């Protein structure tokens, strides 16, 4: 199965990078930009094709959705390449000095890009992929019930529209919950394309796609952002390949918490938006550049909206100080000194008022209320929150002291060099959001962090977009200080020694930041990334007692062989059977968690509360007929004291919510015949 994982991984890279790279290179975008900004182009195309084919009711595939884009990009690339060759032949050779300078610059860029890809993949496979208990292992948490089921739905139907997603695509019964008009399901569509194309399980496709997004797309996008920020100071990039993945808050924690895969995907392309927006607003950008990067900004904005909308707000928060700085700089070059101060204040004040107005409008918008009113309770004291921020421990209890030092050094260097000082303000704003989110409950918390579901993990993930540039600047500044000290006690001007020292410093950074857990004098020492490895191992284990054990998975496969494909199976989703549709395409009634919160249909309520009374209650009998239920599945039947019982720990699953199913054995309810049993796992058939 690992061969299938690699195939899925390579296909994912090809889908997300090749077309966009060829289009952007044809438009003379540098290699770092062509790679870093490539993914949004493929994503917007696939979104559009999915919506189009879905509206037409046409079942799509990778061939029908992706091949047209690939062919168009190849033709465009070849046409531009031939045209450039003809122009060079016609005009003669270019200036030799410029050619040498361009070659040297391109060589340095290729080295940095290559190092970034290699280091990111090594870290990703060593820390994340290696901990998977098989390529199709998955995290048994609340959000994954929906994730796997929706991937299965898209893959089985060939309908990949992000509008009106459903996990009941071919059901002959009314689903327990109502239709969803909109859900940011782009990540699910991408995973489903991999699932259907290579005929792999949704869990395997999800793992492969997450590996691509986390350790290829995000590093390349972040590198493109850094190239844009440090355009005249490329030496500041020397430690970027090592530091791009240094923050445990992203992508690492989102691979485990939730898991928040939609947010992972939108944040993976967020650097592309920030980077293209910065290129769009540069003073030296010509009309062609503004057209290219303006188009990229717009495309990426749409992508993020349809992947996980809060990424748009994250980019907005990060870029507000940048926009203020640009307005201040632009206004200072357009008028005389007499009215300069007034114009500066007016431009900045007008922009900030616009931001506040948009924020307030969206915060009070009806369609945003389920999001901005959602509440995660506070969990830290004010003092502890400050310590967490200062120690870079905002997404776990494990500090990253070296990273904290680099960020502080980066801030000092930004102030000293008078470059990119807006990054400091952005970092402080996001840190304040985290502080409010973690320490308080009330209106201010929802106003500042409601667009992120008041979720501290999503806020913490937002800090990387300014934290990484600051850390890169700090690492360079500290390295230069050390190099100058070294020069004072040795021969000066040895570039080879400086290169060797930078390599040694990079290796040292890798060891200090990413080192796993270890022991000293038989005492365990836990590190930030050692903790992550442990969490990945436990969360993906197929042998530990979990919601859905290996024995229960084997039982589900037996049930799949016995029950006809069109027969509906009533289930208690919190015993692990919510994963049955996503994993095995089983026709279970409840296909994700949270369908018992009181918003489900009357039929659903009758079934889960009183299905055991169907022979004596005509309304329940009618509900069984309406839902076409023929079987009842229980993976943890019996008394609550049984040690083998494992239910998803969530406040949504309240005692008695599935009393009808639980009472079948307790009351020896008539009308149910035991078809298959293994311990506390049982399948009943409803006999009329």
From TrEMBL:
It holds the Pfam family DUF6541. The chain crosses the membrane at residues 6-24, 31-56, 62-82, 110-129, 208-229, 236-254, 311-329, 341-365, 385-415, 422-444, 459-483, 495-515. Keywords: Membrane, Transmembrane, Transmembrane helix. The keyword rRNA processing does not apply. InterPro entries: DUF6541 (IPR046671). The keyword Membrane applies. This is Uncharacterized protein.
């Amino acid at each position: 199965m690992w061969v299938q994982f690699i195939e899925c991984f390579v296909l994912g890279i090809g889908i997300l990078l090749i077309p966009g790279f060829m289009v952007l290179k044809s438009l003379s975008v540098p290699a770092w930009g062509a790679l870093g900004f490539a993914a949004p182009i493929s994503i917007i195309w696939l979104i559009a094709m999915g919506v189009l084919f879905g509206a037409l009711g046409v079942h799509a595939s990778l061939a029908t959705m992706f091949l047209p884009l690939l062919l168009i990009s190849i033709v465009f690339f070849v046409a531009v390449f031939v045209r450039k060759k003809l122009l060079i032949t016609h005009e003669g050779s270019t200036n030799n000095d410029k050619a040498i300078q361009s070659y040297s610059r391109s060589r340095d860029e290729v080295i940095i890009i290559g190092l970034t890809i290699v280091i990111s993949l090594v870290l990703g496979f060593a820390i994340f992929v290696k901990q998977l208990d098989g390529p199709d292992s998955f995290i048994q948490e609340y959000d994954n019930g929906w994730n796997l089921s929706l991937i299965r739905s898209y893959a089985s139907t060939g309908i990949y529209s992000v509008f009106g997603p459903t996990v009941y695509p071919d059901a002959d019964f009314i689903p327990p919950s109502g239709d969803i008009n909109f859900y940011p399901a782009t990540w699910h569509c991408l995973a489903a394309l991999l699932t259907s194309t290579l005929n792999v399980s949704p869990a395997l496709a999800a793992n492969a796609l997450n590996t691509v997004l986390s350790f290829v797309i995000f590093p390349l996008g972040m590198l493109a952002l850094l190239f844009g920020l440090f355009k005249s100071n490329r030496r500041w990039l020397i430690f970027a390949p090592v530091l791009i993945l240094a923050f445990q808050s992203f992508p690492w924690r989102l691979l485990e918490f939730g898991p928040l895969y939609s947010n992972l995907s939108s944040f993976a392309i967020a650097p592309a938006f920030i980077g293209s927006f910065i290129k769009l607003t540069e003073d030296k950008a010509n009309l062609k550049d503004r057209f290219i990067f303006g188009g990229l900004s717009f495309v990426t904005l749409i992508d993020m909206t349809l992947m996980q909308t809060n990424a748009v707000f994250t980019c907005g928060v990060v870029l507000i100080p940048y926009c203020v700085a640009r307005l201040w700089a632009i206004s200072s070059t357009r008028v005389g000194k007499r009215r300069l101060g007034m114009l500066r204040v007016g431009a900045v004040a007008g922009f900030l008022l616009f931001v506040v107005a948009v924020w307030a409008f969206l915060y009070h918008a009806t369609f945003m209320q389920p999001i901005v009113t959602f509440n995660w309770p506070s969990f830290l004291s004010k003092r502890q929150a400050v310590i967490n921020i200062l120690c870079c421990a905002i997404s776990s209890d494990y500090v990253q002291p070296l990273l904290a030092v680099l960020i502080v050094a980066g801030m000092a260097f930004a102030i000293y060099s008078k470059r990119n000082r807006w990054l400091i303000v952005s970092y402080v704003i996001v840190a304040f959001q985290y502080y409010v989110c973690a320490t308080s409950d009330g209106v201010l918390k929802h106003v500042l962090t409601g667009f992120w579901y008041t979720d501290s993990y999503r806020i913490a993930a937002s800090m990387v977009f300014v934290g990484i540039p600051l850390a890169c600047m700090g690492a360079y500044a500290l390295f230069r200080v050390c190099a100058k000290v070294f020069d004072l006690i040795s021969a000066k001007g040895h570039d080879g020694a400086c290169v060797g020292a930078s390599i040694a410093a990079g290796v040292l950074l890798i060891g200090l930041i990413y080192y796993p857990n270890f022991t000293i004098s038989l005492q365990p020492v836990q590190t930030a990334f050692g903790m992550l490895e442990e969490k990945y191992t436990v969360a993906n284990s197929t042998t530990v007692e979990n919601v859905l054990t290996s024995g229960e998975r084997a039982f589900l496969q037996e049930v799949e062989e016995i029950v006809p494909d069109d027969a509906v199976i009533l289930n208690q989703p919190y015993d692990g059977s919510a994963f049955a549709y996503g994993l095995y395409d089983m026709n279970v009634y409840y296909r994700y968690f949270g369908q018992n919160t009181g918003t489900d249909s009357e039929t659903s309520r009758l079934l889960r509360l009183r299905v055991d009374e169907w022979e004596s209650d005509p309304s329940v009998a009618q509900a069984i007929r309406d839902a076409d239920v023929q079987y009842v599945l229980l993976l943890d039947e019996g008394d609550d004291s049984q040690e083998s019982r494992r239910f998803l720990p969530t406040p949504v699953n309240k005692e008695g919510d599935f009393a009808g199913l639980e009472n079948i054995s307790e009351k020896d309810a008539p009308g149910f015949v035991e078809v298959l049993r293994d311990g506390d796992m049982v399948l009943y058939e409803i006999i009329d």
